[in-house]
Recover the amino acids of this structure.
């Protein structure tokens, strides 16, 4: 089940939001949220529900051991076991199949002379959200190990932390130390709930109105044979994908943050206008913040962070970004994407970084955006040859095929609107507008200030409802599937 | 921002209003299930909506059931019709992209009020990005010569008629980006070239006839995929001439044999319906032909039992009889032939129309016609797998859903 579906929006959500405030006591509310979260997950992935529940129980048990054990060696053994269990689960489901397929292709290709048999690979399906699940579970045991938080006494609390439906399939990646206190005490306030609606509506609009509009041309162009590409097509598809991935992902995160607020939770913010960055380093402070801070706290710092030699520090960065790429997908294109970003971070620690800092601001923005944009080609391409075809078209060195696709086929008015809207709303324009108006209002006499405030609040509510309505219509439109011929 | 006391009250009111409207909005679709508040016209999707899934007590069964309920809800939730209508209206009025979501994205807005059915592979064909492979062409030759030879053994003639897609006749009304790319030979040209070089199966390509006929007025509907009565009449005359050249003498009627009327405004065509623009894109100046009283009366009736299977309503086999003339025909056809019934009925004593691209040999053997005509639309022909069609021919009489309207 996804947030941007009629089933979630018009059935699951109203039922859950209506029952939740009727329940008394945080324990009962937590239990209810756990049950509906399991239903939410089971709806899309019933086959893995019990396996992941079993893993959660194991994490709860090991968390208790880590918490109660006083002997450092035994604590270490328990936390190591938990890490191995969680990483093992992720590796088995996410990487085993592609790894064996890679070995088999070597055995059938360059190593064919060895006459070794192919390794049989079964149909290993990927449980939805396994990457997020694993990082939540790791945060649980690591935070307990570091004495940042106590273990949950009730396994249902551990399960709710991991399975809580707003963050279950696409984050943000929550920390046990941040959520544990909220599982014990939290309040749903009128203001918090209204803010939750505003965040949810904004996120839904980002996903449905902007991201989906540019996803179509991006998908169509990335599916074309390399020979049908042209430089303008490659650039247009890359721009579309750049807007799509940000508005899709940050929209989903906004919806998650908004839903959290409706239940009284405060989640970490996941994005902070990453495309206004002036360096790749800054981009990673603004992009998928819950993931980059997870890697920083649980991997980069334990590796030594920057409190070591310059060379070691650079190696740490490369390791972190190698794993970051691998976390995104079991494909070498993701790994190279991670290493590509890692390379920029290493470079920015050298004289190159000083050079960038001395450039005029507009060039710094241009540099960061271009670096990220090229990275998205690696991220989106399904293979290296495809990525190479796109990049060679983008720099104009590709040989055009006999028949190429016209750009106008893909540049619809809706996609242009989404690109322009994307460019505007990728900047902090709303926050700027709000603060400017607020400052202006404060300079007015009290009556005028009140009138302006009232207008602003009403407008904000009307825009929120308008966005919900438009998004609902666009969602309904996505279920409209007409055929020219009648289909049974 | 410094909040004045009144601002706090305003904030509270705005929040309460927002929360109340939000709850109403998310509950309305469920409420509509019982209260039936959605008064919007039903959408034309040409498909059966998802049915409520059956439950099987197994892990896979539960998974399928849950996915099925989501699909069912997506097709049935309250206010879906109104929301879809809004989306279609806003999309058309604001963006003018002629893309109604889902498969309606294959509707292409041309110049003026001209709409085209241009699914991705059709566009690829127009710009020359899709070519038949040698194996596919040989597959077509095998299928058609096989059909012709099977008939020849029974003393029956054969003709393949190819009604052209609208864009083949009106490329100038396509959007510029596509009109400029109509140069390269298309799959149809490739097909015809191969068939002419490697077989003598009679094939009638109607493009030249219709390109000539369009000089006297519109011959395709603007908001529909099909030709109009004027286009069908031109096609009819050419088909009868071709049949005569195969040794079945017959003379096509002239336009004077019909009363021709023009409807200034008619119902929107299938493409406008796919976009949900029935109201804003009516079909204009639609010609219709009525036989003059001097013509012998013909009888047209549905006979679904001729080919027993589950027919989509309106596509059942039809028989047209004309006691004043002789000759028998069986036509396997698509939706374009609907406009030919009236005309062809004037030249044959009995015609059986079967709306499917593959054959039904028992019908042919029962009818013992003088000629079998395959009417296969350009876009169906260039993307139909001839091997599948050949296998379907062999499965004659079994339950096969019609693949063409």
């Amino acid at each position: 089940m996804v947030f941007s579906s009629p089933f979630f929006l018009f059935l699951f959500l109203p039922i859950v939001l209506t029952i939740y405030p009727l329940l008394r006591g945080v324990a009962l509310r937590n239990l209810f949220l756990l049950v509906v979260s399991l239903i939410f997950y089971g709806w899309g992935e019933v086959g893995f529900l019990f396996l992941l529940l079993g893993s959660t129980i194991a994490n709860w048990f090991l968390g208790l051991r880590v918490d109660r054990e006083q002997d450092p060696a035994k604590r270490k053994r328990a936390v190591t076991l938990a890490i191995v269990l969680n990483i093992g689960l992720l590796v088995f489901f996410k990487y085993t199949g592609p790894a064996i397929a890679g070995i088999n292709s070597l055995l059938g290709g360059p190593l064919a002379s060895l006459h070794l048999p192919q390794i049989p690979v079964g149909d290993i399906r990927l449980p939805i959200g396994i990457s997020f699940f694993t990082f939540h579970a790791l945060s649980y045991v690591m935070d307990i190990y570091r004495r940042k938080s106590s273990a949950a006494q009730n396994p249902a609390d551990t399960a709710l932390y991991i399975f809580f439906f707003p963050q279950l399939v696409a984050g943000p990646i929550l920390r046990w130390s941040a959520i544990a206190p909220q599982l014990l005490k939290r309040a749903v306030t009128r203001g918090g709930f209204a803010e939750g609606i505003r965040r949810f509506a904004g996120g839904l609009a980002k996903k449905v109105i902007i991201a989906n509009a540019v996803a179509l041309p991006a998908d169509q162009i990335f599916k074309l044979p390399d020979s049908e590409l042209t430089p303008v097509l490659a650039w247009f598809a890359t721009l579309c994908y750049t807007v799509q991935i940000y508005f899709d992902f940050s929209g989903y995160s906004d919806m998650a943050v908004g839903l959290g607020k409706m239940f009284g939770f405060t989640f970490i913010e996941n994005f902070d206008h990453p495309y206004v960055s002036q360096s790749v380093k800054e981009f990673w402070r603004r992009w998928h913040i819950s993931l980059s801070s997870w890697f920083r706290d649980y991997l980069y710092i334990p590796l030594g962070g920057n409190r070591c030699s310059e060379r070691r520090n650079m190696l740490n960065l490369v390791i972190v970004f190698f794993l970051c790429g691998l976390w995104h997908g079991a494909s070498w294109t993701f790994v190279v994407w991670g290493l590509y970003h890692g390379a920029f971070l290493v470079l920015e620690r050298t004289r190159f970084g000083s050079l960038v800092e001395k450039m005029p601001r507009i060039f710094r923005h241009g540099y960061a955006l271009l670096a990220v944009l090229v990275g998205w080609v690696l991220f989106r391409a399904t293979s290296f040859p495809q990525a190479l075809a796109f990049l060679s078209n983008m720099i104009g060195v590709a040989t055009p095929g006999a028949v190429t696709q016209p750009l106008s086929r893909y540049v619809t008015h809706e996609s242009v609107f989404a690109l322009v809207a994307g460019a505007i709303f990728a900047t902090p324009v709303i926050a700027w507008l709000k603060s400017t108006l607020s400052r202006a209002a404060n300079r007015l006499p009290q009556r005028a200030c009140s009138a302006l405030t009232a207008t602003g609040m009403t407008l904000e509510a009307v825009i929120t409802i308008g966005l919900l309505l438009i998004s609902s219509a666009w969602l309904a439109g996505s279920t409209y599937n007409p055929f020219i011929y009648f289909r049974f | 921002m410094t909040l004045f006391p009144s601002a706090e009250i305003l904030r509270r009111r705005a929040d309460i209003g927002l929360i109340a409207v939000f709850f109403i909005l998310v509950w309305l679709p469920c409420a509509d299930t019982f209260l039936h508040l959605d008064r919007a016209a039903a959408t034309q999707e040409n498909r059966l909506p998802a049915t409520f899934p059956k439950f099987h007590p197994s892990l896979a069964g539960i998974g399928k059931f849950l996915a099925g309920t989501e699909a069912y809800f997506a097709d049935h939730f309250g206010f879906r019709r109104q929301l879809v209508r809004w989306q279609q209206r806003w999309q058309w009025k604001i963006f003018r992209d002629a893309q109604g979501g889902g498969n309606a994205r294959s509707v292409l807005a041309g110049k003026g009020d001209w709409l085209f059915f241009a699914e991705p592979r059709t566009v690829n064909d127009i710009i020359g990005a899709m070519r038949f492979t040698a194996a596919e062409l040989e597959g077509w030759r095998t299928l058609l010569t096989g059909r012709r030879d099977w008939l020849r053994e029974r003393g029956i003639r054969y003709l393949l008629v190819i009604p052209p897609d609208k864009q083949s006749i009106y490329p100038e009304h396509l959007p510029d980006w596509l009109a400029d790319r109509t140069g390269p030979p298309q799959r149809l040209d490739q097909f015809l070239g191969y068939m002419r070089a490697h077989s003598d199966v009679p094939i009638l390509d109607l493009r030249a006839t219709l390109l000539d006929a369009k000089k006297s007025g519109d011959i395709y509907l603007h908001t529909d995929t099909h030709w109009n009565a004027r286009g069908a009449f031109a096609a009819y005359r050419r088909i009868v001439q071709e049949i005569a050249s195969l040794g079945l003498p017959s003379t096509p009627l002239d336009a004077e044999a019909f009363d021709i009327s023009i409807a200034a405004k008619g119902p929107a065509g299938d493409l406008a319906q796919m976009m949900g623009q029935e109201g804003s894109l009516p079909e204009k100046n639609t010609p219709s032909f009525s036989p003059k009283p001097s013509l012998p009366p013909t009888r047209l009736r549905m006979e679904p039992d001729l080919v027993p299977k589950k027919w989509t309503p309106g596509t059942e086999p039809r028989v047209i009889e004309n006691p004043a003339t002789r000759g028998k025909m069986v036509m396997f056809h698509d939706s374009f032939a609907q406009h030919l019934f009236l005309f062809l009925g004037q030249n044959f004593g009995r015609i059986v129309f079967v709306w499917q691209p593959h054959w039904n040999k028992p019908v042919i053997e029962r009818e013992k016609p003088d000629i079998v005509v395959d009417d296969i639309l350009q876009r169906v022909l260039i993307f139909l797998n001839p091997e599948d069609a050949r296998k379907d021919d062999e499965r004659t009489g079994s339950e096969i859903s019609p693949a063409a309207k």
About this structure: The two ends of chain A are 26 Å apart (CA to CA).
